[in-house]
Amino acid sequence: MTPRQKRFWFITCGIVVLCLAAAFVLNAFQSNLVFFFTPSQVARGEAPKNRLFRIGGMVKEGTLKRGKDEIEFIVTDFSNEVVVHYTGLLPDLFKEGKGVVAQGRLSDDNVLTATEVLAKHDENYMPPAAKDAIDKAAIERASKSLKTNP
Q1: Which span out of 19-23, 39-43, 48-52, 132-136 was modeled with the highest average pLDDT?
Q2: N or C: fewer beta carbons within 10 Å in the chain?
Q3: Closest Cα to residue 51, out of 28, 38, 39, 33?
Q4: Cα–Cα distance, 101 to 120 (Å, whole number)
Q5: How far apart are the first and last CA of the chain?
Q6: Is the separation of the CB atoms in 53 and 75 below 8 Å?
């Protein structure tokens, strides 16, 4: 083999190794990517079925049910609601009427089986997407009540 052919094979092998490394990095990034959805987006069918994602909103008052190991509650953006099942310990700040983000998979009957539940940590903080959804739902309710009550 001539030095030119050796150099060619060395460069070709280097390019192949770099492409494989890039493919592994992109695959790892894709599998760890978790999207955020609101209950209204879930109701419209925008959330993936049987794929990990996060849902955010408020815990609806009076919907928290505690079993032996399982917990069930409803996440709402005051326009739509999603039932969440969770097995495990809830955060100390988790309360009805407060903000929550749950991560899990949506079943075919639109029930989220959560693997992780996060409660908001501050009275003034809410994820921007959840705040926008709640604000839009409030505007929709106000416009509907104005139309029905002239």
Answers
A1: 19-23
A2: C
A3: 33
A4: 8
A5: 90
A6: no
Eight-class DSSP state of 49? B
Q: CB 121: neighbour CB atoms within 10 A? A: 9
Question: What architecture (CATH level 2) is domain 35-148?
Answer: Beta Barrel (2.40)
Q: How far apart are CA 73 and CA 3, in angstroms?
A: 70
91-114 pLDDT, tens digit per residue, is: 888 888 888 999 999 888 889 999
Q: Is 85 helix (H, G, I), strand (E, B) or coil?
A: strand
pLDDT digits (tens, 9 = 90+) for 26-71: 888 777 777 888 898 888 888 888 788 999 888 999 999 988 889 9
Cα–Cα dist 117/115, whole Å: 7
Cβ partners under 8 Å of residue 138, min gap 6: 78
Give the start-to-end residue ranges of the domains of the chain. 1-33, 35-148
Q: Are 57 and 99 in contact (CB under 8 A)?
A: yes
DSSP-based three-state secondary structure for 67: coil
Q: Which of 47, 87, 54, 58 is nearest to 70 (CA)?
A: 87
Alpha-helical runs (H) found in 84-149? 128-148
